[in-house]
Amino acid sequence: MSPTATTERIGFLGLGIMGSRMAANVAAAGFPLAVWTHTPGKAADWAAAHGARAMSTPAEVAGASDIVVSMVVDGEQVASLMLGPGGVIEAARDGLLVIDMSTIAPPQTLHVGAALRARGVAMMDAPVTGSSPRAQDGSLTIMAGGSAADFQRALPLLETMGALIRHVGELGQGEMLKLINNAIAAANACALAEALVLAQATGVDLDAFQEIVAGGSGASTQLTMKAAPMRAHDYTTLFKTAHMLKDVRLCLEEAQRAGAPFPAASHARDLLIGAIGRGHAEQDYASIIETAEGMAGSRLGS
Length: 302
Description:
The chain is α/β, with parallel strands linked by helices. 51% of the residues lie in helices and 13% in strands.
């Protein structure tokens, strides 16, 4: 990275499973970094470990930054930290750029963007795909919505966090593409879970199932990532079931608004609801195998 690429001061809001790893890559690239998160004391500990500065409010982060990144759970949190008391808007000034990398509904993005723009603050949405290991090594896929000029300004920063980075259109289009992507992933994971249950029920060796499907037309990222955890009932969290359900639900809301049916996503929503009903909301969405097993009255490995 050239010396001029790190002259922008960066603020980072949210230090959860994904945000903490993404911010670590920003710090490692040499950008001056100020951070905040809602958990008391967490930002100070993280900042001490990564050579950053901890701030007490999002407004303080914005006041010390040229570009502010947010990576939080949902649209309500984004609106609160941007527009609420102590929010970014209190430090609004011309030239400040906000990049929300959370996954939220496109209408929420447009609402926040309009409020910030009225105060001279530009906004992009740049949600990511890829779980925590890819956040750790900076190889996320990033889909960015906003102006072309803002995208070019943000690109050196985004390159510290992602490997495939694409400007996909105007503000809100990054979120829409992300929701569609996650709904496809959830639908694929549901198909995998049901196929595993069927394979066992019909006497197919599950090791053979994984090997043959991986080499054939049924291969998928979900097979690679989730077949083994599903078989082991290992739901160590890479992406929470509750978060996947949230994304699928938001996608279906946009599908309804557009008049474009997405029945595979509707089925995925139902299996995710079943997994949450079995107590797996905070665990990985590989837990949808529990719903598939429950529907069939069987359990893998039994």
